[in-house]
Structure formats: structure tokens, C-alpha cells
């Protein structure tokens, strides 16, 4: 076991980190009005796998993480529909941007939760995760993602609306 993780937890964690990393690339590309087709595919697949694999982890009861995973899977279904079925036409472009950003936010939200659970210095600051340091960290993440989503919605235009749009790998 690496870092005390079972193989399943390790794989789940690695997939989650891939989802966060690729999601950051996709978000950055949205700000530059780039489609980033391959990065988007990796982001969506890894984020779907992250949410789905969470249900395989041992749990004695339904937990808040399960609720986040269900909500994330619903949002990801809309993102995939907007991106691949509706091809981001019309209002589906905005729908894709908002759902993709929301899915990335949920991954980062869970990352912050896990950091406060697993990193001793952070755990000491908020052992029950209802203390001010945890609330402040999550509030900062939420505000950052709202700002990032607004910026992405403003800059990621419909094809042809901005001659600068390119499809990037």
C-alpha cells in the first residue's frame, strides 16, 4: 500500500487528480476561446470515472461524498450532451461551460475535503471540518470557481463568433 491506501483508493485518487489537472487545462483553454478537444475528452472521462469509482470505495452508509458524486454525474451527463450531442450550439455552449466548470469545482471541493482529512497540519486546524479554516478554504475555492466560470462563459464563444477560436489538442 502506498501512503496507507488500498489499490482501489489509490486508483480512485490518481484518476481524480488526472480529472483536476485536465480540467484546469480545459478551463484555461476556455479562457482563450480554444476547444481543446482531446483535453476535454480526458477531463470528462476521468471526472466521470472519479465520480463513479467513488461508489466502489468501502462505506458503511450513504455519505455526503455519495451525494456529491451523484450530482457530479448528473452535471457531467449534461456537459457531455451539450458538448457531443448538441455540439455546443446556441445555449448549449453556455450549458457546456457551466457544467464543465461545476464538475471541476466538485472535484476540487472534494480535494479540499480530503486535504483537511489527510494532511496533519490542516486536520489540526479543522478536525471536524466545521471550523473557520475549512469554511474559509471552501469559500475561497467557491469564489474562485464562480469567477473562473464567469470568465469562461464570457470568453468561450460560439464558433465563428471570434476569429481567434481554434481547436487545440
Features of the shown structure:
mainly alpha; 72% helix
Provide structural commentary.
The protein is mostly helical. The protein has one domain (7-155). The chain has 6 helices and no strands. The protein has helices at residues 7-31, 37-53, 64-85, 91-118, 120-125, 132-155. Helix 1 packs across helix 6. It starts with 6 loop residues before the first helix and ends in a 14-residue tail after the last helix. The mean pLDDT is 92.
The overall strand count is 0
Number of helices: 6
Q: Please give the share of residues in helix.
A: over 70%
Beta content comes to: under 5%
Mean pLDDT: 92
Summary, kept brief:
The chain has helices at residues 7-31, 37-53, 64-85, 91-118, 120-125, 132-155.
Task: Give the helices and strands, then pairings.
Layout: H1 7-31, H2 37-53, H3 64-85, H4 91-118, H5 120-125, H6 132-155
Amino acid at each position: 500500500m502506498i501512503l496507507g491506501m488500498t489499490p482501489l483508493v489509490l486508483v480512485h485518487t490518481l484518476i481524480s487528480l488526472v480529472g483536476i489537472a485536465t480540467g484546469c487545462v480545459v478551463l484555461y483553454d476556455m479562457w482563450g476561446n480554444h476547444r481543446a478537444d482531446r483535453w476535454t475528452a480526458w477531463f470528462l472521462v476521468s471526472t466521470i470515472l472519479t465520480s463513479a469509482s467513488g461508489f466502489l470505495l468501502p462505506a458503511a452508509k450513504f455519505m455526503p461524498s455519495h451525494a456529491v458524486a451523484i450530482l457530479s454525474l448528473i452535471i457531467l451527463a449534461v456537459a457531455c450532451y451539450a458538448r457531443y450531442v448538441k455540439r455546443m450550439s446556441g445555449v448549449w455552449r453556455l450549458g457546456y461551460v457551466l457544467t464543465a466548470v461545476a464538475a471541476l469545482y466538485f472535484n476540487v471541493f472534494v480535494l479540499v475535503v480530503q486535504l483537511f482529512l489527510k494532511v496533519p497540519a490542516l486536520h489540526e486546524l479543522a478536525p471536524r471540518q466545521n471550523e473557520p479554516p475549512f469554511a474559509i478554504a471552501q469559500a475561497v475555492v467557491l469564489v474562485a470557481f464562480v469567477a473562473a466560470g464567469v470568465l469562461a462563459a464570457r470568453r468561450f464563444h460560439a464558433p465563428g463568433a471570434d476569429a481567434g477560436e481554434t481547436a487545440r489538442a
